[in-house]
Amino acid sequence: MDHAGGSINFNGSLVSDKDNYHQAKVNASLDNVDVNKIFTAFNNFGQNGIEAKNLEGKLTAKLDAVVALDDEGNAYPKSIESFIDFSLKNGALNNFEPVKKIKSFVFKKRDFDSIRFGELKDSLEIKNQEIKINRMEIQSNVLSMYVEGIYSMKGNTDMSIQIPFNNLKKRDSGYIPVNKGLDKKAGASLYLRGRPGADGKIQFKPEIFHLFRKSKVK
After folding, report:
1. CB burial class (10 A; 0-12, 13-18, 19+) of residue 52?
2. Could you tell me if 207 and 168 are in contact, meaning their C-beta atoms sit under 8 angstroms apart?
3. CA angle, 27 then 29 then 34, to 5°
4. What is the rounded CA–CA span in Å between residue 71 and residue 105?
5. What is the pLDDT of residue 213?
6. What is the reported pLDDT for 3?
């Protein structure tokens, strides 16, 4: 069917396991839909890591999801499990707090409120109220960076941001961001690691020895 400026195909099933508890399975493919509208329609896919208000662009994706619903159609957050392969083109990240916090360390005079990029693509896994972000390249009008880790709604967030030093040269208004590919070596970089602080909010700190990646290898 046509929706949000593009098309959506989906199928699924709904099984009632017990009173006020229904198991739903959904398989969907989205082609060139307005990401803001689709995140709004699907209630941000049951997570608050990145929401409709933070996104612009055209989304193409494949989604496989399992979720438990009550009699009113509301999702039980802990039940949501989904796998998403996506590509977001001609997009923007607007007022996305984790990215804006980078200004505490680098490029304090650059505008991080609205970051425009050529394409974001990645595979996400949402399970047990946590989002696993595989290494993702972000090439934008502000800077280049690579993001990976876990965004948790249970206070277990552990994310890594790699910022290559070649970002030191400021990009002019006509700069067109183009992905280089994850296999391309980024060169000497600053690494930031984000984890919850005492107030529960994500705090980023420099990682001189890049312990995040070393812990993954182990």
Report:
1. middle
2. no
3. 130
4. 48
5. 59
6. 58
pLDDT at 60: 94
> Using CA atoms, how far apart are residues 166 and 116, in angstroms rounded to an integer?
18
User: What is the C-alpha separation between 144 and 167, in angstroms, rounded?
Assistant: 7
Residue of 106, 13, 93 whose CA lies nearest to 56:
93
Backbone angles phi, psi at 102, to 5 degrees: -60, -30
Structure tokens at 22: 């229904």
Contact assessment for residue 24 and residue 12, using Cβ atoms and an 8 Å cutoff: yes
Helix (H, G, I), strand (E, B) or coil at 180: coil
**Which pLDDT score is estimated for 216?**
60
- What type of residue sits at position 181? G
Question: In the prediction, which pLDDT does 174 show?
Answer: 81
Amino acid at 120: L
Query: Tens digit of pLDDT for each residue in 40-91?
Result: 877 776 667 678 888 899 999 998 999 999 998 888 888 989 999 999 998 8
DSSP symbols for 185-211 = ---SEEEEEEEE-TTSSEEEEE-SS-H
Residues of the chain with pLDDT under 70: 1-4, 45-47, 49, 209-218
Smallest Cα–Cα separation from 63: which of 117, 23, 24, 89? 24
Total-model pTM: 0.80
Which two tokens mark 196? 């919850």
**Ranges of H-type helices in 3-113:** 35-41, 97-100
